[in-house]
Specification:
By secondary structure, the protein is an alpha/beta fold. The chain has two domains: 1-22 and 222-245, no CATH class; 24-220, 3-Layer(aba) Sandwich (Rossmann fold), CATH 3.40.50.300. The protein has ten helices and five strands, in the order H-H-E-H-E-H-H-H-H-E-H-E-H-E-H. The chain has helices at residues 6-9, 24-35, 51-62, 77-93, 95-101, 106-125, 141-151, 165-180, 198-205, 223-234; strands at residues 40-44, 66-70, 154-158, 190-194, 213-217. A five-stranded parallel beta sheet has the order 2-3-4-1-5, sandwiched between helices. Helix 8 packs across helix 9 (198-205). The relative contact order is 0.20.
Length: 245
C-alpha cells in the first residue's frame, strides 16, 4: 500500500481525498440530487463541517469533470459569470479537447470564440489603470448553460454566501435558467456551497425554486466520525503498527 505524508492524510484546511470517510445519509442525498435531472443543489452548514470534501468526492461518481468558482466578497454577478466562461473557454478553444470530447454543437463553439474575442478587445481598449473586463451581451445565462451543457460539466459555486444583494439574487435566478435547459442537457447543474441560511436565500429570491432546489445541510462531524478519520488515516501512515480508539 502506498504511504502518504501526514499532510496528505489529515487535511483540516483542504478537501480530503486519501482519507475520505463516507457519511452515508448525507452522501446518499447528495448523489441522488446530482443524478436528478434539473435539480439544482444548495449545500450549506457551518464552516469546517466538510461541505467541500463531500461534494468534491461525490462529484467523481457522477461527472467526469466540473468547474468551480470561488466566490469572494466584492465579486459581482458579472465577475462570477466571467470566471465560469474563462474555465470553459479553454475546453472549447482547445481543438484536441474538442475532438476528444466530440462536441457536435458547432454553434456553441462559435459563440464561445466570438465572446472570447469581444472580451479581449474590450479589455485591450479599456484604460490601463482600471483593466476592467466587460460582460459581452452574448454571454447570457442561457448561453452559459448551453456551454456547460455541451461540455457535460456541472458548476460549483464555493462560498456562495459571500455574494451579496442583487448579485446573489441574479445568481439564484440563474439556477432557474439552468433548470429550464435541463430537458436538453440532463446533467446541467449549479451546486452552491454556503454557510447556514444560504438555501433559504435562494428560495426567497425565487419562490418557484422551492421544489426545484435540493437543500442539503451538512452538520458538524460527530465524535465517532472524527475517530473514524483518525483510525482510517493511520492505515496510510508509515511505521504504524496499530491504533486503538
Amino acid at each position: 500500500m502506498k504511504k502518504y505524508t501526514i499532510g496528505e492524510i489529515f487535511t483540516p484546511s483542504s478537501p480530503a481525498t486519501v482519507n475520505f470517510i463516507e457519511r452515508e445519509k448525507i452522501n446518499t442525498r447528495i448523489v441522488s440530487a446530482l443524478k436528478t435531472k434539473g435539480k439544482q443543489i444548495v449545500i450549506y452548514g457551518n464552516s469546517g463541517s466538510g461541505k467541500t470534501t463531500l461534494i468534491e468526492n461525490k462529484l467523481k461518481q457522477v461527472y467526469e469533470k466540473h468547474i468551480k468558482t470561488n466566490c469572494m466578497e466584492g465579486m459581482t454577478y458579472e465577475n462570477v459569470i466571467l470566471d465560469a466562461f474563462d474555465q470553459l473557454a479553454h475546453y472549447y478553444l482547445d481543438e484536441r479537447n474538442v475532438t476528444r470530447k466530440k462536441i457536435t454543437n458547432l454553434s456553441v463553439a462559435s459563440t464561445v470564440k466570438i465572446i472570447k474575442a469581444q472580451i479581449s478587445r474590450s479589455h485591450e481598449e479599456g484604460e490601463q489603470a482600471t483593466m476592467k473586463r466587460s460582460l459581452p451581451p452574448q454571454l447570457t445565462g442561457s448561453n452559459l448553460a448551453k456551454m456547460l451543457g455541451e461540455s457535460n460539466y456541472c458548476w460549483v459555486l464555493e462560498d456562495f454566501h459571500k455574494i451579496t444583494g442583487n448579485d446573489k439574487k441574479r445568481l439564484s435566478q440563474l439556477m432557474k435558467v439552468f433548470m429550464d435547459h435541463s430537458d436538453q442537457y440532463p446533467e446541467l447543474k449549479i451546486i452552491a456551497l454556503g454557510a447556514v441560511n444560504t438555501a433559504r436565500q435562494v428560495v426567497m429570491y425565487d419562490v418557484e425554486m422551492r421544489r426545484r432546489v435540493a437543500e442539503i445541510k451538512v452538520p458538524l462531524m460527530t465524535e465517532d466520525e472524527i475517530h473514524k478519520i483518525i483510525k482510517h488515516g493511520c492505515i496510510y501512515l508509515p511505521s504504524v503498527v496499530s491504533f486503538n480508539v
